[in-house]
C-alpha cells in the first residue's frame, strides 16, 4: 500500500484491499473514499468488501465512482459532498490514485491558487498540469499541443498491445513507441480456466507489467480519457495530452457485471463464481471440490464475449472432477446459454455433445441470465426463443459459474473510433480503421467478426506491425488477417478439442490431421494447452517472436 500525501488532511493511493484497512486506522485515517467503479479490473475487490472492512476498523467509507479517464463536473460535485460528510484525515483511492488526485485538484481549484495545487500534487507524484490547462480553457482540454509526442502510441498493454509493440520494435528498432496502460499486473487470462479446474495455480498466470514492456518502449502508466483523432491526440487521466504519428487501439473489453441484477453483490460468495476474474477462479475449484450434491449452473451471455468456449470449459472440467470422485450421479448440471447453439463452428459440436452426454448435462438455449439472489441461491433467466413470446424462469442452484455480459470499454464506446455497437471500426483484413488512416486496432475491442481469443491477437499483432511499417514507408497495406482464432476446449482433464478457425467458421488447423485432429478430443492438444502455450505466450508472443503467426500477404490492390 503506497500512500501519497497531498495535504495534511488528504492522501491518495492506488487500489487498496480489505486487509489494508486496519493499518490505515492505525496510521490515523478516519475515512476512505473509493473513486474506482466496481468491476473495472480482473483482480479488484468490490466496494462492499472494502466498506465492510472499513466499518470493522472504525473508518467511514464513501463510494464516489468515476469512470476511468472521465472526470466530469458532476463527479467533482459528488466528491465535494463526500468530503463534507466524512472526518479527516482521509484516503481516496482508485486504480492508480490519479482519478482521486484529479478530483481533489478540481475541487480545490475553487479556493486555492492553481500553482499551490500543482505543487502539492507534484510532490505526491501526480502531474496535474493538464487539469490546469482544462480549467484555463473553460473546461475543455486543448489538443493542439501535447505533453509528449511519439511515432506510435499503443493503448492497452494486454496480449495485443505488448505483442504489437514487440513486433514493431523487431521490425523497426528506431521507432519511438509508447504503451498506455494503468495496470501493474499483466495476466495470462487463458490460464484461468485451468485454475478453475484445479490444474494451474492462480499466481502462475500473473506477472509484473514493468517486466513485460519491450525494451526501448515507453510505458505511460495512465488511463485514457478520450481520443481526438482529428488532432492525432489521446487525452489521459489528469487531462494530459499525448500526440502520435500512428495509433494502435487494443485495451480489451469490459466485463459488464453490473448488467446482471444482484450479481456484483454475491460474486465470490454464496456459491457464485467466475473464471473470468483472477481472484475468483480459485473459488471455482473450491466450489467444485466442495459440492457433493445439488444443482450446478453454468451461464453464457449473448455474444460477443472473449473466449466463447470458456463458459462450457468450466462445465466440462467441473463435470470431469465430479465424474472422477463419484459424485456426478448426485449433481444436476445445467448449461444456460443465451445463444441457440452449443458452439458456433459445427465441426466441433459432435465431440462436445459426447461430453455433454457423458456428464449428463442439460442444455438450455436462449436462456440469458438477468438477475441473481445469492442468499436465496436463485438465478433468473430471460428466455427469448424466435418462435415464442419472451418469458422468464427462476432456477435454484447450489453452485453457479457465471460468464458476465461483455461490452467495449466506456471510453471506446463514446469515442469517434467506435461503430454503432461501440466497437472500434476496422477493415477486417488490414485491421486499419475505416475512417482514420493512421489508426489500427486489434484484440477484443475491434469489430472484425472473429473469435475474441489470445490466439487471435497472436495472429493480429504481426499483421498490424507489418501494415504500420509499410505505412511509414509510404506503401499500401501488405499483410492480411484471415480471422484466425483458437479455442482449446478442455473437455476433461487430459483431453482437449482444439478448435481453430477463421472468418466464416472455416477450419484453420495449425497441424496436419495425422498429428492432431482438432475436431476430436486428444491428449496432444492437452499437452499443448497445459505445457506449451504458457511459455509460448510469455517468451515468444510477448517478445515479438511470431511462431506460427506470420500474416498472410496482400497480393492484390484493395480499394
Automatic annotation (TrEMBL):
One of its GO terms (molecular function) is FAD binding. Residues 2-107 form the Beta-lactamase hydrolase-like protein phosphatase-like domain. Transmembrane segments: none annotated. Keywords: FAD, Flavoprotein, Hydrolase, Oxidoreductase, Quinone, Transit peptide. It comes from the Bacteria. InterPro entries: BLH_phosphatase-like, FAD/NAD-bd_sf, FAD/NAD-binding_dom, Prot-tyrosine_phosphatase-like, Sulphide_quinone_reductase. GO terms for biological process: sulfide oxidation, using sulfide:quinone oxidoreductase. Gene3D superfamilies: FAD/NAD(P)-binding domain, Protein tyrosine phosphatase superfamily. Residues 150-263 form the FAD/NAD(P)-binding domain. Its cofactor is FAD. Its EC number is 3.-.-.-. It is an enzyme of class 3 (hydrolase). This is Beta-lactamase hydrolase-like protein. The gene is blh_1.
Amino acid at each position: 500500500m503506497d500512500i501519497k500525501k497531498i495535504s495534511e488532511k488528504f492522501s491518495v493511493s492506488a487500489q487498496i484491499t480489505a486487509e489494508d484497512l486496519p493499518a490505515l486506522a492505525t496510521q490515523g485515517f478516519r475515512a476512505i473514499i473509493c473513486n474506482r467503479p466496481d468491476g473495472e479490473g480482473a483482480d479488484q475487490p468490490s466496494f462492499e468488501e472494502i466498506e465492510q472492512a472499513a466499518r470493522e476498523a472504525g473508518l467511514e467509507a464513501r463510494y464516489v465512482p468515476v469512470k476511468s479517464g472521465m472526470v466530469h463536473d458532476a463527479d467533482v460535485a459528488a466528491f465535494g459532498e463526500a468530503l463534507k460528510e466524512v472526518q479527516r484525515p482521509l484516503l481516496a483511492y482508485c486504480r492508480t490514485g490519479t482519478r482521486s488526485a484529479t478530483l481533489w485538484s478540481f475541487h480545490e481549484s475553487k479556493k486555492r491558487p492553481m500553482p499551490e495545487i500543482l505543487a502539492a500534487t507534484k510532490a505526491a507524484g501526480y502531474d496535474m498540469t493538464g487539469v490546469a490547462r482544462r480549467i484555463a480553457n473553460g473546461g475543455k482540454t486543448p489538443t493542439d499541443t501535447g505533453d509528449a509526442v511519439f511515432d506510435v502510441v499503443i493503448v492497452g498493454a494486454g496480449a495485443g498491445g505488448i505483442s504489437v509493440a514487440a513486433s514493431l520494435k523487431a521490425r523497426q528498432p528506431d521507432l519511438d513507441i509508447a504503451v498506455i496502460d494503468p495496470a501493474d499486473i499483466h495476466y495470462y487470462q487463458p490460464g484461468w480456466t485451468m485454475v478453475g479446474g484445479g490444474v494451474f495455480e492462480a499466481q502462475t498466470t500473473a506477472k509484473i507489467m514493468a517486466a513485460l514492456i519491450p525494451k526501448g518502449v515507453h510505458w505511460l502508466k495512465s488511463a485514457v480519457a478520450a481520443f481526438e483523432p482529428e488532432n492525432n491526440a489521446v487525452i489521459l487521466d489528469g487531462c494530459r495530452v499525448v500526440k502520435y504519428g500512428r495509433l494502435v487501439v487494443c485495451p480489451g473489453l469490459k466485463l459488464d457485471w453490473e448488467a446482471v441484477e444482484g450479481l456484483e453483490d454475491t460474486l465470490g460468495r454464496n456459491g457464485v463464481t467466475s473464471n473470468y476474474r483472477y481472484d475468483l477462479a480459485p473459488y471455482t475449484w473450491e466450489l467444485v471440490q466442495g459440492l457433493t450434491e445439488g444443482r450446478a449452473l453454468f451461464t453464457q451471455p449473448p455474444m460477443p464475449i472473449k473466449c466463447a468456449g470458456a463458459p462450457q470449459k468450466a462445465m466440462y472440467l467441473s463435470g470431469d472432477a465430479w465424474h472422477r470422485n463419484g459424485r456426478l450421479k448426485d449433481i444436476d448440471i445445467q448449461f444456460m446459454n443465451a445463444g441457440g447453439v452449443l458452439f458456433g463452428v459445427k465441426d466441433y459440436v459432435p465431440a462436445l455433445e459426447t461430453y455433454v452426454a457423458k456428464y449428463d448435462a442439460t442444455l438450455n438455449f436462449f436462456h440469458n441470465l438477468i438477475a441473481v439472489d445469492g442468499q436465496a441461491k436463485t438465478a433468473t433467466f430471460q428466455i427469448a426463443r424466435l418462435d415464442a413470446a419472451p418469458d422468464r424462469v427462476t432456477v435454484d442452484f447450489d453452485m453457479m459459474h457465471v460468464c458476465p455480459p461483455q461490452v467495449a470499454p466506456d471510453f471506446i464506446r463514446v469515442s469517434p473510433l467506435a461503430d454503432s455497437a461501440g466497437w472500434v471500426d476496422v477493415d477486417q483484413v488490414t485491421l486499419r480503421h475505416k475512417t482514420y488512416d493512421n489508426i489500427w486496432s486489434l484484440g477484443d475491442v475491434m469489430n472484425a467478426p472473429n473469435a475474441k481469443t489470445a490466439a487471435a491477437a497472436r495472429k493480429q499483432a504481426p499483421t498490424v506491425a507489418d501494415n504500420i511499417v509499410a505505412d511509414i514507408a509510404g506503401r499500401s497495406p501488405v499483410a492480411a488477417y484471415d480471422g484466425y482464432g483458437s479455442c482449446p476446449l478442455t473437455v476433461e482433464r487430459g483431453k482437449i478439442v482444439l478448435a481453430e478457425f477463421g472468418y466464416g467458421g472455416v477450419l484453420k488447423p495449425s497441424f496436419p490431421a495425422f498429428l492432431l485432429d482438432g475436431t476430436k478430443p486428444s491428449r496432444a492438444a492437452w499437452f499443448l494447452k497445459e505445457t506449451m502455450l504458457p511459455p509460448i505466450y510469455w517468451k515468444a508472443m510477448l517478445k515479438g517472436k511470431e511462431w506460427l503467426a506470420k500474416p498472410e500477404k496482400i497480393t492484390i490492390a484493395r480499394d
